[in-house]
Amino acid sequence: MTDQSDDAPNEILAAAREVTEQGEAAAKALADKAKSWPLAIGIAAGIGSAAIAGAVLYASRDKKRK
Q1: Cβ neighbours of residue 28 under 8 Å, at least 6 residues apart?
Q2: Which of 39, 62, 40, 58 is nearest to 50 (CA)?
């Protein structure tokens, strides 16, 4: 028999608990990152639209200067 008490977990249980905590932290970080995507998409669409508008204005200007 062993003299281990329930308060002192062995190496395997400690490693399993650590992996579980890391997984939960990674899931939380992923959820936080997913919440910021709509903002990033909106910013990217705004910048892209401005770039296209600028290119159209540049292309449609008079090419001949006097």
Answers
A1: none
A2: 58
Place of tokens 């281990």: 4
| Predicted TM-score (pTM) of this structure | 0.41
| Counts for the chain of helices (H) and strands (E), in that order | 2, 0
| One-letter identity of residue 45 | A
Give the pLDDT confidence of 16-27 residue by residue, as tens digits: 888 888 888 888
Residue with tokens 């910048």, as numbered in its chain: 47
Q: How many angstroms separate the first and last alpha carbons of the chain?
A: 101
- Tell me which DSSP letter residue 27 carries: H
